[in-house]
Amino acid sequence: MTTTNPYISTPGEILLEEFLKPLGISQYRLAKAIQRPQSAVSDIIHGRRAITPEMAWLLGKALGTTPEFWLNLEATYRLKLIDESSMPEVALLA
Predict the structure, then answer these.
(1) Angle at CA of residue 20, ends 18 and 25, nearest 5°
(2) Model confidence over 6-62: pLDDT tens digits?
(3) 71: buried, middle or exposed (CB in 10 Å: 19+, 13-18, 0-12)?
(4) What is the distance between the terminal CA atoms of the chain, rounded to a whole angstrom?
(5) How much is the pTM?
(6) Using the 8-state DSSP alphabet, how is residue 16 labeled?
(7) Are 37 and 30 in contact (CB under 8 A)?
(8) 11-79: what CATH class?
(9) 66-74 long-range CB contacts below 8 Å, 24 or more apart?
(10) How many Å apart are CA 56 and CA 2, to the nearest integer?
(11) Domain limits of the chain?
């Protein structure tokens, strides 16, 4: 799921552009370091797979970040994808 909005980066785009490329790390090398298939890393980079808590933990350990960093990127991305016009009316309860 690649976004068409140029102002919304997927977590995978951030992984690739802000971590892998600057550090000179290939997708293959990252996959080997976290002991996951290269297809899992590729799917995240191409927006076909979400970052799960387990993957967030692995990425955090491998790249010197926190799991929360990756989960926050994923949650923020998903929230920005919501089309508010298709959401139901919700009454304020408080």
Answers:
(1) 155
(2) 678 999 999 999 999 999 999 999 999 999 999 999 999 999 999 999 999 999 999
(3) buried
(4) 36
(5) 0.86
(6) I
(7) no
(8) mainly alpha
(9) 70/11, 73/11, 73/14, 74/11, 74/50
(10) 19
(11) 11-79
